[in-house]
Amino acid sequence: MSMHDLIRQLREPNKAKIVLLVADGLGGLPIEPGGKTELETARTPHLDALAAEGIVGLSLPVAPGITPGSGPGHLGLFGFDPLDHQIGRGVLEALGIGVEVGPKDVAIRGNFCTIDAEGRVTDRRAGRIPTETCEKLVGMLRDAVQIDGVETLVAPVREYRLVVRFRGEGLGDNVADTDPLSTGLHTLEPKAGDAASEKTARVAAEFLRQAKQILKNERPANFLMLRGFAKFPDIATMADVYGVNAVAIAVYPMYRGLARLVGMTVVDPGKTIADQMEVAKANWGKYDFFFIHYKYTDSTGEDGNFARKVEMIEALDAEVPKLRALNPDVLIVTGDHSTPSRLRSHSFHPVPTLLWAPATVRPDLVTTFGERPCLQGGLGQFLAKDLMPLALAHAERLQKFGA
User: Fold this and answer.
1) Does 403 fall in a domain?
2) Given 230, 249, 274, which residue is the final one in a domain?
3) What are phi and psi of 266, to 5 degrees?
4) I need a surface site. Which of 84, 201, 279, 310 has the fewest CB within 10 A?
5) Same domain for 99 and 47?
6) Residue ranges of the alpha helices (H) in 262-350?
């Protein structure tokens, strides 16, 4: 019996409310050996209070030593084993902005970038161009790119991100990314990993050839890279597996796409974390599971800005009382992965996690929320996919197993 089948067998409905607050890229590292991480440096009285009243630990998004992307990281938090559900980022980005992905489609995430006269990447994010510039550049591509036998859709996402969708017969999704993952290098050619994806690789190469010509006189975004080639996967919903009526309150499109993928209702989140809290309050009577996503702990880590990441953690902490005022039965605060400012990227490090459930929790001795305290917490180190069963158990939504 699979874990999902077991949950289907044991689950029972009640009116308990579960909140999953995901601070993207929450985990960090000290800048200097022996120093504090970003989370340990931040002043977080409200998160500390939750930790003191609840239980803490460290979650492993995929497996020990494995650095996750945002997709696998969130799927684990939603209770789906990332090793069993490998989903390309293109589908997630497309769903996040409402682009349909059908059986003949391959969806791809694009990043506008800057290249020099020799074609080497000088900025993988094109200086984080504003969304308005992204929309203009997407319009140029949409109007000009033509590929025989394939319908091409190009849509803006946010800042330097865009979605590309190829629709046609015989398109596979086993195509390598064209992002070299470092500056000073040439972008890569789209290469197929199997015979079924050869056509897609050829189409992508032609798309990039035309895009380079169209964008050659633009600055700073004069080219783009393609990542996460993906077809729509076969995956269950959270309602089917966990019996929850879930809502996603996420600003960034990719996380809205992840939520739609597992059957969550996606609502307008507003623009700020304060807006998101108001949206949660307004929808409190309609749903029993609330996924609230906070991006800025990740983006500041990727920028290598330790002090700014500390500020973003403190800004999140200031909003926590609004959640407590709603009286959830279970409140979980964690991240989908670690993004240490010191590394400027996602990392394999376990993620600080706290679980607050006044009626059912067995508190540990930890009184603050940080990497070192969580190492001493009662949850120990656990796989992120096991968090949903814990949430249901603390919400008293699981029956006894066996006689």
Assistant:
1) no
2) 230
3) -110, 125
4) 84
5) no
6) 273-282, 296-302, 306-324
Contacts for 254 with CB less than 8 Å, ≥ 6 apart: 70, 71, 89, 92, 93, 96, 109, 157
Tokens 């020990």 belong to which residue?
A: 64
- The structure tokens listed for 361 are 């929790």
Say yes or no: 36 and 118 in one domain.
no
The answer to whether the pTM exceeds 0.85 is no
| Buried/exposed 269-283: b ≥16 CB within 10 Å, e otherwise | beeebeebbebbeee
- Cis bond upstream, residue 64 (ω within 30): no
DSSP letter (8 states) at residue 73: H
97 shares its domain with 180: yes
SS3 285: coil
Phi-psi region of 138 (alpha: psi -120 to 50; beta: other; left: phi over 0): alpha
CB contact set of 271 (below 8 Å; sequence gap of 6+): 251
* Contact by Cβ (8 Å): 133, 289: no
Structure tokens at 261: 């993928």
Which residue's entry shows tokens 């076969």? 234
